[in-house]
Amino acid sequence: MSVRTTVEQMVRHVNQIESTELAAQIEAELLDANAVTVRILFIKVLNWLRVRGVTTRQQPLPLPNYPWAEELRRLIDVCPSFSESFQVRDDHVEFKSSLCDDDIRWVEAYVVKNYVPVARR
């Protein structure tokens, strides 16, 4: 699954509370993941992508010592859709180095245009 498709499904899942193929795949691959866990992980990643899209800061997503961060780390390890798009380096999530800049800019612009943060609804 491309980074564009992955992000589109995350946005659809969070905005419309719609179960997507990606969410079902994650729930199946992470044995203790449920709909709430998946939603939290999607929101964390989408918020980070939104900040990247509206500012010039290209900082990675920090992974503090919290349960959601450990789940995200595991998700990137076991889920091909995430491991093809993101990587963990030095306790931070960043785009996979093999992704082209066009895909990264497209994803950031898509999230800015289509993702409505939960607090703003």
In short, what is this structure?
The chain has helices spanning 3-16, 21-29, 35-54, 67-78, 80-83, 101-114, and strands spanning 61-62, 86-89, 92-95. It is mainly alpha-helical and 121 residues long. The chain has one domain (3-120).
Features:
121 residues; mainly alpha; three-stranded antiparallel sheet; globular
Largest sheet: 3 strands, antiparallel
How many beta strands in the DSSP annotation? 3
Label the structural class. mainly alpha
The portion of residues forming beta strands comes to 5-15%
Helix-strand pattern: HHHEHHEEH
Helix content: 55-70%
- Spatial separation of the terminal alpha carbons: 29 Å
Poorly predicted runs of 5 or more residues: none
Tally of individual domains: 1
Give the overall shape, derived from the CA principal axes: globular
Task: Walk me through the structure.
By secondary structure, the protein is mainly α. It has one domain. Helix content is 60%, strand content 8%. The protein is built from 6 helices and 3 strands, in the order H-H-H-E-H-H-E-E-H. It has helices at 3-16, 21-29, 35-54, 67-78, 80-83, 101-114; strands spanning 61-62, 86-89, 92-95. Strands 1-3-2 form a 3-stranded antiparallel beta sheet. A hairpin with a 2-residue loop joins strand 2 and strand 3. Helix 1 crosses helix 3 and helix 3 (35-54) crosses helix 6 (101-114). The longest helix is centred in the middle third of the chain and has 20 residues, at 35-54. It starts with a helix and ends in a 7-residue tail after the last helix. The model has no long low-confidence stretch (mean pLDDT 86).
